[in-house]
Amino acid sequence: MKNNEKVRCFFEKNRKKIESNPLIIGFLSNKDNLSLLEDYLINPTEDNKNKVDMEFKAHCIRARRISYISNLIHFFSQDYDKRRRKEKERNLLILDKTSTDDSEIAIIDLVKDNRQELNLPNSNLMEDVGDEDLIHALKTLTEKQLLILDLIYHKNMPLKEISFKLKTTPQNISNHHRTAIKKLRLHLLNKGEKLK
């Protein structure tokens, strides 16, 4: 019987056992281990058998270590998630409670926004302006632009506070302000040229 025949016969005879065992599949997927087994099948000496046995034992030890570490990581991560969940459930922020045992002030009163709510004073700026041309120019603005001009010039609010109240960025407020001023200037310049 030829050497390749012996190897082929061995694998055909033990195919089901090999395919059903992932440990053996992992062992034989290494080319060095496969060549050790082939050497033993071709030349079945005690020395070749011991080489295959030693390599298979080393492979099993590595597989056990990897499995152990993998399980350790898996269960540790599950345990960590459980601890975090418990911690969140135990340390709920209840705003109705007092900040300390001695205090009578609720936490919600400490974090509540006490600034005045924004009313839409669209007419306030228009009421204070006496110039008819400026009133006509103001009427060309959008409602938002008019509101921003009112908050800046009539209420003397800073851009950051306006952006907080309107729930936008200071940059956006600045852009609306700049556009409104340009519109007013253009409208007033055109009106002045028509009068000449």
From TrEMBL:
Cited Gene3D superfamilies: 1.20.140.160
Matches recorded under InterPro entries: RNA_pol_sigma-70_dom, RNA_pol_sigma70_r4, RNA_pol_sigma_r3/r4-like
SUPFAM superfamilies for this protein: Sigma3 and sigma4 domains of RNA polymerase sigma factors
Annotated signal peptide: none
Residue ranges occupied by any RNA polymerase sigma-70 region domain in the UniProt entry: 137-185
Official protein name in the record: Sigma-70 family RNA polymerase sigma factor
